[in-house]
Amino acid sequence: MTNIALVVGATGITGSNLAETLIKKGWTTYGLSRNAGTGLSGLIPVSADLLNPDDLNASLQDLAPTHVFITSWMRNDTEAENIRVNSAMVRNLLNALAPRKSVQHVALVTGLKHYLGPFEAYAQAGTLPETPVREEHPRLDLENFYYAQEDEVYAAAARDDFSWSIHRPHSVIGKAVGNLMNMGTTLAVYASVCRETGKPFHFPGSSEQWNGLSDVTDARILAEHMIWASTTKAAQNEAFNVANGDVFRWKWLWKQIAGWFEIEPVGFDQMIHPLEQAMAGDAEIWKEIALKYNLKETRIDRLASPWHTDLDLGRPMEVMTDMSKSRKLGFTVYQDTRDSFFDLFEKLRTEQLIP
């Protein structure tokens, strides 16, 4: 039987890497986004607004996917709005697909805010879990749009009789333009500005992050994990952490990143140096850099998301994930984290997104 994938959020870090992997594996792959163009060969674009049920119904009326991969979300000013908007996006999508009765599996990507709390109460004392975080950890007694998204998937699965999987990556490292949560590219842009201007390449985060253990999730690993869970019976109807499989300390990795860009690293100096402040005046500098090196993107906000990198690197605790659940069920794919960053930097340079 032919596998037909619908990747929701096909222009993002997770969705674009997933779509590319599915196509390589021979899946018929549709990519849904508000603006249909992705430039990925073999991807069938679908343009639709997830918050407009009529638009969704019209765009999806002739589509009968067997597997749905939800990688999209929308940031709002409050968590209450995050819940209202992001749960509606999932609900509208699954309602629009229900009449065809073609869906066999739905995979939803959330993240470690499942354990650390929403943006408004992120990693605050009194709510912090033991690490490594494990899937068995109960939901926090806090409003969280990840929980609302999960509940929409569970309700639709019970109604329409499909299986599901929930995927909780750590910081996702991969290439995308216009993404809201993009640590790898943010650090590449920051390092490029530091190299060009001579500004110090300060580690922006906390002592706990500098000295503690951490891990990240390569977008390619996440893609493989989602496909594995959606096609492995033992992995159905389960939530999973997903990370590269190694651990590191930022005090080591910061030097590695600085070395790649041929600049001097400045480590933790008893102060947090938020990237939002450090990069606040870099928009015009980036335009000049882009013109000088003939780069494809002159808008720094299309590449860098310092607010999100500050959230991750400013946490008052070390954070890493336990992947025993996936390993026991047969997922053994591994990725070296230094290579995740270096591969990304090389791709950004090759595609003329950084100098």
UniProtKB/TrEMBL annotation:
InterPro entries: NAD(P)-bd_dom_sf, PRISE-like_Rossmann-fold. Pfam families: PRISE. SUPFAM superfamilies: NAD(P)-binding Rossmann-fold domains (SSF51735). Residues 66-355 form the PRISE-like Rossmann-fold domain. This is SDR family oxidoreductase.
